[in-house]
Amino acid sequence: MIWYFLLCLHFIFEIVGVLSHLIFLKLVVFQKIMDFYCSISLGLISLSMILMLVTYFLESAVCLSIGSVFEDDQCAEIPIKKIILCIHRFAEAFSLAAQLFFTIERVLSIQFSKIQRTLFFKLFFLAGFVFENGFAISYVYTNVILGGYGLFWLVTFQLAVIANFPFIYYAKRISSSKYKANVTTYSLKRKHNLYNFYEIARSFLYSTAIYMFAQLTCFCILWGAAVTGVMYSVEFHRWFFVISLIWNANLAIFPWIVMLIHRSQRERLNRLWSQIFTKSKVSSKILGMNGKELVTTPTQFDYFNQLQRAWE
């Protein structure tokens, strides 16, 4: 009975996760509030996670159609299940490589203000996209099609997850230090960009930390299964079922961590929430230095609206 309850949790996490990422794409990626390369990178990460959630949902549905809660040997022999598994593994490896590349790209963009305009950066970004696909295809071919190199990929994924954290922490530190520099050091436009870089790095740092904790927990379980020999027994299907539940929960909360930690995104969500659930419109006020309300003319009101939009 407990396994059917966990299966329901699987489906809930997958449905909620897909909806969460669609909201993330709508409010963050497609709004063009970040620079082009950042939006593309976040979009690719989010789409790969959506693909992981959808394919696991389909895998579970295929196994359930033959009366199996777990991905056992009988379910694994179904041809459509093998195809879905290849797509899932591709998205899994692509997502991990995309997160690591995104962090490196952020460090370069923060450290060198004009690098995004250069031909080198465009080629670097294109090479990163090719690498992500090549990494994912290699994983699918060696691990799923050939059925080998399990421990090699386990170590590789673990190192990639761990390596991503110090990179994003460094991006947060340098963007913060550059933003706090004297205004004579950087122009206001550059400081505004640095503030955006800092907010992105800050929100991604927390999401990466939680993602890393969840992944390392799963990796420890897999290492335990490999050392004890459970990985090669019938009982491993139950272990992997629990691991997949942790993964799917992690994928579902990932976009919300990014949006809620990012200050301007959090404010946009609060305004959206107020518009949906507040019946009476709350009037905005502009206060002077003495704390008294200023009477705004249309020109002043438009000015403050434009100022607010510019800094979001």
TrEMBL record:
<feature type="transmembrane region" description="Helical">
    <location>
        <begin position="204"/>
        <end position="227"/>
    </location>
</feature>
<keyword id="KW-0675">Receptor</keyword>
<feature type="transmembrane region" description="Helical">
    <location>
        <begin position="36"/>
        <end position="58"/>
    </location>
</feature>
<protein>
    <submittedName>
        <fullName>Serpentine Receptor, class E (Epsilon)</fullName>
    </submittedName>
</protein>
<feature type="transmembrane region" description="Helical">
    <location>
        <begin position="148"/>
        <end position="170"/>
    </location>
</feature>
<keyword id="KW-1133">Transmembrane helix</keyword>
<feature type="transmembrane region" description="Helical">
    <location>
        <begin position="6"/>
        <end position="29"/>
    </location>
</feature>
<keyword id="KW-0812">Transmembrane</keyword>
<keyword id="KW-0472">Membrane</keyword>
<feature type="transmembrane region" description="Helical">
    <location>
        <begin position="239"/>
        <end position="261"/>
    </location>
</feature>
<feature type="transmembrane region" description="Helical">
    <location>
        <begin position="123"/>
        <end position="142"/>
    </location>
</feature>
